[in-house]
Amino acid sequence: MAHQDIRIGWIGLGEMGLGMAINLQNYLSSHSQHLTVWNRSPGKTDGIEAQGAVVAKSIEEIATNNNVIFTSLSNDAAVEAVYDQLFAVASKTQEPIIFVEVSTIHPTVAAKNAEKLAAFPQHVYLQCPVFGRPPAAHAAQLLWVTSGNAEAIQKLNP
After folding, report:
1. Which of 24, 87, 102, 150 is the most buried (most CB within 10 A)?
2. CA R_g for the chain
3. Cα-based distances in Å from 156 to 74, 78, 111, 112
4. Cα–Cα separations (whole angstroms), residue 23 to 2, 16, 45, 116
5. pTM of the model
6. CA distances (Å), 18 to each of 2, 87, 95, 111, in order?
């Protein structure tokens, strides 16, 4: 997947997610691309939309129109609910999707996601905990630790 072929979606615009998503949108717009975002609370999308991001109407729209999907969600239950929807769409598509989970979640939730997605070998699940507080997210100063498929990780390097 060449960089120009990457279409990135972002789910979760809380304190951490919004900062990361804004920085990614700024990077993408400098390369004539855009980020597609979705959030459970629609009003949280206004600021990033003003910066050029496209707001999806649903999780299904994110999963259908993007081949890289970042998730930054508030807790295990939110991660499980969102990934159930993402995997339902992914089960119907042959185009490879790289899922990048950056939420702070219990390791068993991450393992369950990886196990569920293993049924669809065209897709990849990366666990990517981030270290830092919301001000660090907004300042693009987080430490990212990514684990999973090395080839998929390399595709995401700028």
Report:
1. 102
2. 14
3. 24, 25, 21, 23
4. 21, 11, 14, 30
5. 0.94
6. 26, 23, 27, 25
- CA torsion angle for 16, 155, 1, 66 (degrees, to 10)? -10
Q: Per-residue b/e over 40-61, b at no fewer than 16 CB within 10 Å?
A: eeeebbeebeeeebbbbeebeb
Task: Return the structure tokens found at 148.
Answer: 């999973």
| Structure token digits, residue 1 | 């997947």
Contact 66, 7 (CB under 8 A): yes
The pLDDT tens digits along the chain (158 residues) read 445 589 999 999 999 999 999 999 999 999 999 999 999 988 899 999 999 999 999 999 999 999 999 999 999 999 999 999 999 999 999 999 999 999 999 999 999 999 999 999 999 999 999 999 999 999 999 999 999 999 999 999 87
Do residues 132 and 126 touch, judged by C-beta distance below 8 A?
Answer: no
